[in-house]
Design brief:
Chain A: Keywords: Membrane, Transmembrane, Transmembrane helix. Chain A: It comes from Shewanella surugensis. Chain A: This is Efflux RND transporter permease subunit. Chain A: It holds the Pfam family ACR_tran. Chain B: InterPro entries: MdtA-like_C (IPR058627), RND_pump_MFP (IPR006143). The structure holds 2 protein chains of 2 kinds. By secondary structure, chain A is an alpha+beta fold. Chain A has 32 helices and 30 strands. Helix content of chain A is 52%, strand content 20%. Among the domains of chain A are: 437 residues, Multidrug efflux transporter AcrB transmembrane fold (Up-down Bundle); 94 residues, Multidrug efflux transporter AcrB pore domain (Alpha-Beta Plaits). By secondary structure, chain B is of the alpha+beta class. In chain B, strand 19 and strand 20 form a beta hairpin. Chain B is built from 4 helices and 24 strands. Helix content of chain B is 25%, strand content 36%. Classes of the chains: A alpha+beta, B alpha+beta. At the A-B interface, helix 20, helix 21, strand 19, helix 23 and strand 26 of A face helix 1, strand 1, strand 2 and strand 21 of B.
Chain lengths: 1032, 361
């Protein structure tokens, strides 16, 4: 204090500076919706267009899996193999060094034996480095005319790519939906080959290795000349390339084939508001400000739209401007913080009725929050919904220390001490208790931060902000408050308390301590407070879910095709129909207002992302969508939902999966179909989604060589397949350089319109002349899997399970597990086994970890109490007040549930751990005061009365300010409020319950004979009021 | 009380709030249909053929003589056109010499005959010996034979001289030359190969597999792509060891012909009649294990699963053999989840566009 006394001016000035720095830092902190979540995942995209899922699995994926199987720290892998493309995802343990893992993956990929030369190596995405996240996405389109992929490609390369890549904070532009890679096809007419009696090999052997080479030097005169052997040629030269001779005549390539470029991968159909469009998205660097990036992108987009693109009749538009929901969600939290501050201060004033004192206590808020922001700035954190919610939660909490200090100072002033001495003693007397109670609140976060599941990353910012705020509150209470008090408070005591009738406080203290004066009441209170509270907790506990479900403003619809269509059919039969319906229905007066919609279609499904206008009723909008736009689309399954702000937050997806393994594909499909039917039958309203189809639904035309005939003709199956590939997809010849670009180069037959045309193609068989393909192969139509799913290097059938409306994931998953176990036991084929992934797996692992963390937190608190109070008994007494708070927390959730859905999700669960750390302070102070009283010679009753009387007001004040500070978080609706509402509900409910009942409960508990220090002085009967010494 | 409130409020919320995931499906599935079309084309197969001729007659030399002149290869000629000429000088000289010898032989034969007559009359008077008589008879016969031989030789020479000019036996073309002008050709040597116009046939290869599938080849129709009918003339008895194909020979039916080059590759359609054939859109086909089937929609808009056999594919259609009748409606879209006798809603019964393709609005 003397130090404070001496340097009070500097302390005040420094605090003002901190506030200023805090404001400046807050402007520089990155803004995001959620904290940076390190997803311990590396994904790979493998493209092999024209190949079936079966071939890709055999040739690429199985060898790749074998190569990657022994990577260190690999937890789980999965591959989704469809025709032409595969996504492979590698999930690592939570503490994995992802940089090392990334390098390891890259090295192993380069060592895969027999990787086909024409297949590009996998494209790797390091999701731990933010690669998986998307900060924004755009569409390039034209309202005036229909553009082709080539038009888009040219416009993108010429005008857009370089400009957008220069936007700071952008790591990569993702073009996976509109890949620009092209290939060079020499498209030959099979009839031209037969006309000249040429075989495919005759021609292709002239087309390999069309590259320049060089030799040694040749010295001529005084110079050395490089020898350069031309092999490379231009497209024009290529068409003139001699490939065969017939008598005197040279047959040139141009007579047999045409050369042209085309895209390697057929684009998914994308449209923006009905206009064909090119889609791409932006991946941010780590630790960047999402709002800054979107603002810069917006400026660049405007410039392009007004400049180069306007001349081409094209336009860029955001698909999803993520800044809007971020801004809405953050501004909501800011509002909640301000409201919380206001409410807390109002509440304080009601109690204190002294503006100067309220002002002094209020000053803690800006100073503490500034310290928190500075801590976040230097700690590399971001301003997001979680960190801001933590700050909002701590508004009430950080007032506690100041309240306790001010209360003590005021008490001493009323007792007659002068201002300086009151300030000094007031701080000194409570310093120890303050520090220990604050530490106990902070230390509770340590187990939370040490949790290893990916879900627990959400809590780091929460723990950081709340614990920083508590530390800051101690510093402010112990240093700034007395320094400022010297200047603000008058030297004369002016205590509202002195005006308060003594009898009122006495009356309340007597009332609250009534249980301590009756053995029966005491036992009832203790029984109810512990056992009753635990039973109540169990009885009213809401259902468990993984994550809250904060809605965002967009609606998503999937139109799943029951069997794959061709890209053209998907566009014509579905996409165009949907677009036509939108054009027709939107203009009707009864149609809900729609801002934009985007549509994307591929052979498997169409996807819509719609943005209703503000104020639109979502239920009505979805009904309109279902009945007017997406109705009556044959052979489709329809899924509509409002999108979730936390959709991609957690590794493993936003649904639970049941993975079936151990058998052949046909057997797994059968088991999957049986389980799907059983689950849907036994859990009404549930959805069972097929990750891959449960039957072979892709029709293939299977070519089976006539083996004996091939033998007579001297052909192998490989030779024949090579011819077939050449006629259809094209034989890979190498790379061809044209200008500045290099393309993969194929010798490919002309497109055939139908199977007969292909089968009637004649091939020149060496030594045997021309034979039609029909004579070499048998064909039949077969059904094959359209996609294959592999998990952990095994063929897997995966069922995505979604609970019925309103049912949270936890109990639903339990039901599913029971059903699956019963099935395997009673009907399942031998060898079938199951794994649970996605939310089910994540929830399981989180619950296990949470339970452990909860127990560890309890233990830590218990040990802290033991140290602080010096007695195991008193530590037990303090811990016994926990069930009441927990029961209160559960009741708080149930109250919320009356007005809006609120389950026990993981963020809410953490609220209980935080709650324990907060309410324990009241019990500590009470027990501490009781112990002091007993040590000073008071009887048990008097010590209890004294403790309650002294601590009642500060307990109610600090609890009240905390509750009112958090109330806006709990009650205010808006974007993202669902994320933290449950958390606030738990803490508000728990603290309220604790405030109402802890005093009575602790009185009852401390009145038990076991807590009597002088047994001969224990009295069970009512205490004579005159014997109670007014502690004030 | 609390539980009741919770239950009611949850029910209300459930009813009124948005669903997390909603699966929307009509009770009656909506289907698109297409009409079964008539198919009169039977079962069609393609044969790979070439133009050929029945024979390639040779024009040969009747005599050893120099070839004076011959038409070039590929010259088209009419019947009776001169196509080659051999030199007649030596033959004419030989004929003149022969004519002289013939006159002498005639005189000799006449004298010998008169002498014999004289000796015979003397023999009646027993004035000559038997040997004299025999000798006179012999002389007379030898002379006569000699004369006749020379006569025959003269006729041969005259024939040879008459066939020194070679004429086209029919309308056609000089196909191949085996002798050049100025060349001496021996008797019997081929001068040229002639290709008569009316000698065309089409030779096709048929795989043994296909032959074994066809019930009766004689009942099939054959025609070139231009629609020209062919008639099966002959069937080879020998199958190629390597590719197991054998030849069929066709000539043109009803006096028709086609301008085919020798060796020209052509395709011939073989059409076989079959009952219960119809033409359906490819999208109507469904596959279940190894059986093909279609969903047929009846008058009550109920579906029936009908197994079919695909006999041919033609572009975006398939020719099937089945109980399906022409004009019946088949499901082309919306059939994935159908079961036997399901009632359906037909979206487009009046739309006869088989492909049901939507045009972009």
């Amino acid at each position: 204090m003397r130090f404070v006394d001496k340097y009070s001016g500097i302390i005040i000035a420094f605090s003002a500076l901190l506030v200023l720095l805090g404001v400046i830092s807050s402007l520089k902190l990155p803004n995001a919706l959620l904290p940076d979540l390190d997803q311990q995942e590396i994904a790979m995209l493998i493209n092999w267009q024209g190949k079936t899922a079966t071939e890709i699995e055999q040739v690429l994926i199985i060898p790749l899996e074998r190569q990657l199987a022994s990577i260190g720290q690999l937890k789980h892998s999965q591959s989704f193999i469809s025709n032409g493309e595969t996504w492979m995802r590698l999930f690592f343990q939570s503490q994995t060094d992802m940089e090392k893992a990334y390098m390891d993956v890259m090295a192993r990929i380069n060592q895969i034996p027999d990787w086909p030369a024409q297949v590009a190596k996998p494209l790797i995405f390091d999701y731990s480095n933010g690669a998986g996240s998307t900060v924004a996405s755009m569409y390039l389109y034209s309202e005036l005319e229909e553009l082709t992929p080539d038009d888009f490609r040219q416009a993108y390369r010429a005008h857009i790519a370089s400009v957008l890549s220069n936007v700071s904070g952008i790591a990569n532009i993702n073009l996976s939906h509109s890949p620009l890679a092209q290939r060079m096809d020499i498209e030959f007419d099979p009839k031209a080959l037969t006309r000249f009696s040429l075989s495919i090999d005759d021609v292709t052997e002239k087309l390999h290795d069309l590259i320049d080479r060089s030799g040694d030097k040749m010295k001529l005169g005084s110079k050395a000349y490089d020898l350069h052997f031309k092999g490379q040629m231009s497209l024009t030269e290529l068409t003139q390339l001699p490939v065969a001779v017939s008598g005197e005549r040279i047959i040139r390539l141009g007579e047999l084939a045409k050369v042209h470029k085309r895209f390697v991968t057929e684009w998914d159909y994308s449209s923006f508001e009905g206009h064909p469009a090119m889609y791409f998205s932006f991946q941010p660097d780590k630790k960047t400000n999402a709002l800054d990036i979107t603002d810069e992108l917006s400026a660049v987009m405007t410039e392009l739209n007004q400049g180069a693109l306007a001349e081409l009749g094209m336009k860029l538009s955001f698909r999803a401007n993520t800044s809007k929901p971020i801004k809405h969600a953050l501004s909501l939290v800011y509002t909640n913080i301000l409201l919380g501050v206001l409410l807390a201060c109002l509440f304080l004033y009601v109690f204190i009725r002294d503006l100067k004192v309220v002002f002094l206590i209020f000053v803690s808020i800006p100073v503490c929050l500034s310290l928190v922001i500075l801590g976040m700035y230097f700690g590399g954190r971001s301003l997001n919904v979680i960190s801001l919610a933590g700050m909002a939660l701590s508004v009430g909490l950080l007032l506690d220390a100041s309240i306790i200090v001010m209360e003590n100072i005021q008490r001493l002033r009323v007792e007659g001490l002068n201002l300086t001495e009151s300030l000094y003693q007031g701080v000194k007397q409570v310093r120890g208790a303050l520090i220990s109670s604050t530490l106990s609140s902070i230390v509770i976060f340590v187990p939370i931060v040490l949790m290893q599941s990916s879900t627990s990353q959400l809590f780091e910012d929460l723990a950081y902000t709340i614990s920083s705020a508590l530390i800051a509150s101690i510093l402010v209470a112990l240093l700034l408050l007395p320094a400022l008090g010297r200047r603000v408070l008058s030297s004369h005591s002016h205590m509202n308390d002195a005006d308060k009738p003594l009898s009122s406080r006495k009356k309340w203290s007597l009332r609250l301590t009534t249980p301590s004066r009756s053995r029966l009441q005491a036992n009832i209170w203790v029984g109810l407070g512990v056992v009753g509270a635990l039973m109540l907790t169990w009885w009213v506990m809401p259902a468990i879910d993984l994550l809250p479900n904060p809605k965002s403003e967009s609606v998503i619809a999937y139109v799943d095709f029951k069997e794959p269509l061709s890209q053209e059919a998907a566009v014509e039969q579905v996409a165009y129909v949907i677009e036509a319906r939108f054009a027709k229905e939107r203009v009707k007066p009864e149609a809900p207002a729609l801002t934009t919609y985007i549509l994307s279609c591929n052979p498997g499904y169409c996807y819509l992302n719609l943005r209703p206008s503000e104020g639109v009723d979502y239920a009505r909008f979805e009904q309109w969508l279902e009945t007017r736009i997406l109705n009556d689309l044959p052979d489709t399954d329809l899924y509509i939902r409002q999108s979730n702000l936390l959709g991609g937050a957690i590794q493993g997806g936003d649904r639970s999966r049941v993975d079936l393994k151990g058998l052949s594909l046909a057997e797994l499909q059968q088991a999957g179909q049986a389980l799907k039917d059983i689950i849907k039958e036994r859990i009404a309203g549930s959805q069972v989604l097929e990750t891959v189809a449960l039957s072979n639904n892709a029709t293939q035309i299977e070519f089976t060589p006539k083996a004996d005939k091939l033998a007579y003709l001297g052909l192998s199956r490989a030779d024949l397949n090579r011819y077939l590939v050449a006629l259809t997809d094209g034989e890979y010849l190498g790379r061809f350089s044209a200008g500045n670009e290099s393309f993969p180069f194929y010798f490919k037959g002309q497109e055939v319109e139908h199977i007969e045309q292909l089968l009637e193609t004649e091939l020149m068989i060496p030594n045997h002349g021309l034979l039609p393909l029909r004579d070499l192969v048998d064909t039949q139509m077969v059904l094959a899997p359209s996609a294959i799913f592999r998990a952990d290097n095994e063929m897997t059938i995966s069922l995505g399970v979604v609970p019925p409306n309103g049912q949270p994931m936890g109990p639903f998953v339990d039901q599913v597990k029971v059903i699956v176990s019963e099935y395997i036991k009673e009907q399942g084929p031998h060898g079938l086994y199951v794994a649970y992934q996605g939310q089910a797996g994540e929830l399981d692992s989180f619950l296990k970890e949470f339970l452990l963390t909860f127990l560890v937190s309890l233990l830590v608190l218990f040990l802290l109490m033991r140290i602080a109070l010096g007695s195991w008994l008193f530590a037990i007494a303090v811990m016994s007040s926990m069930p009441l708070a927990i029961a209160g927390g559960m009741l708080g959730l149930n109250v919320l549930n009356l007005f809006m859905p609120q389950d026990l999700d993981v963020i809410t669960m953490i609220g209980f751990i935080i709650l324990m750390g907060l309410v324990i302070n009241n019990a500590i102070l009470l027990v501490g005061e009781f112990k002091t009283g007993m040590q000073e010679g008071s009887t048990q009753q008097v010590a209890i009365y004294r403790a309650v009387s002294m601590r009642m007001r500060p307990i109610f004040m600090s609890t009240g300010t905390s509750i009112f500070g958090m109330l806006p978080l709990m009650l205010t609706p808006g974007d993202g409020a669902e994320i933290y509402r449950g958390l606030a509900g738990v803490i508000v409910g728990g603290m309220t319950f604790s405030a109402l009942f802890t005093l009575g409960f602790m009185s009852a508990l401390l009145s038990l004979p076991v807590f009597a220090i002088k047994p001969e002085e224990q009295k069970v009967s009512a205490v004579d009021e005159e014997e109670l010494v007014d502690p004030i | 009380m609390y539980c009741y409130i919770k239950m009611v409020s949850r029910s209300l919320l459930t009813l009124s709030l948005l669903t997390a995931f909603s699966l929307f499906a009509d009770d009656k599935p909506l289907v698109h249909v297409t009409e079964t079309k008539q198919w009169d084309g039977g079962i069609q197969k393609t044969l790979y053929c070439r133009g050929d001729v029945l024979f390639r007659p040779h024009i040969s030399s009747h005599v050893q003589a120099q070839l004076d002149w011959i038409l070039p290869v590929d010259t088209e000629v009419k019947k009776g056109d001169l196509i080659a000429k051999q030199n007649d000088f030596y033959l004419v000289q030989t004929l003149a010499s022969l004519t002289s010898r013939l006159a002498a032989a005639k005189a000799q034969a006449s004298f010998s005959a008169q002498e014999y007559q004289r000796i015979q009359s003397l023999d009646k008077q027993d004035m000559v010996s038997v040997s004299d008589l025999s000798r006179a008879e012999l002389d007379a016969q030898v002379s006569k034979q000699g004369y006749q031989a020379l006569q025959a030789e003269q006729r041969t020479l005259k024939h040879q001289i008459a066939h020194l000019d070679h004429y086209a036996p029919a309308d056609g073309k000089v196909f191949e030359l085996n002798a050049q002008p100025g060349e001496w050709v021996e008797m019997g040597d081929s001068l040229l190969v002639f290709l008569p116009m009316d000698n065309q046939e089409v030779v096709c290869r048929m795989s043994l597999d296909l032959y074994q599938q066809v019930e009766q080849l004689s009942l099939a129709s054959f025609y070139l792509e231009e629609g020209i009918s062919l008639q099966l003339n002959r069937l080879a008895s020998e199958v190629n060891e390597a590719d197991q194909t054998f030849n069929l020979h066709f000539n043109f039916k009803g006096g028709a012909s086609a301008a085919l080059f020798l060796g020209q590759r052509v395709t011939v359609k073989m059409q076989m009649h079959a009952d219960d054939l119809s033409l359906i859109a490819y999208d109507a086909l469904n596959l279940n294990d190894n059986e093909y089937y279609v969903w047929q929609v009846d008058e009550d808009n109920k579906v029936k699963q009908v197994p079919i056999k695909i006999v041919d594919t033609l572009g975006q259609h398939a020719v099937i053999q089945s109980p399906i009748k022409v004009g019946q409606w088949l499901v082309v879209r919306g059939g994935k989840s159908l079961k036997q006798s399901d009632a359906v809603i037909v979206a487009n019964k009046n739309d006869t566009n088989v492909n049901n393709a939507k045009v972009r609005l």
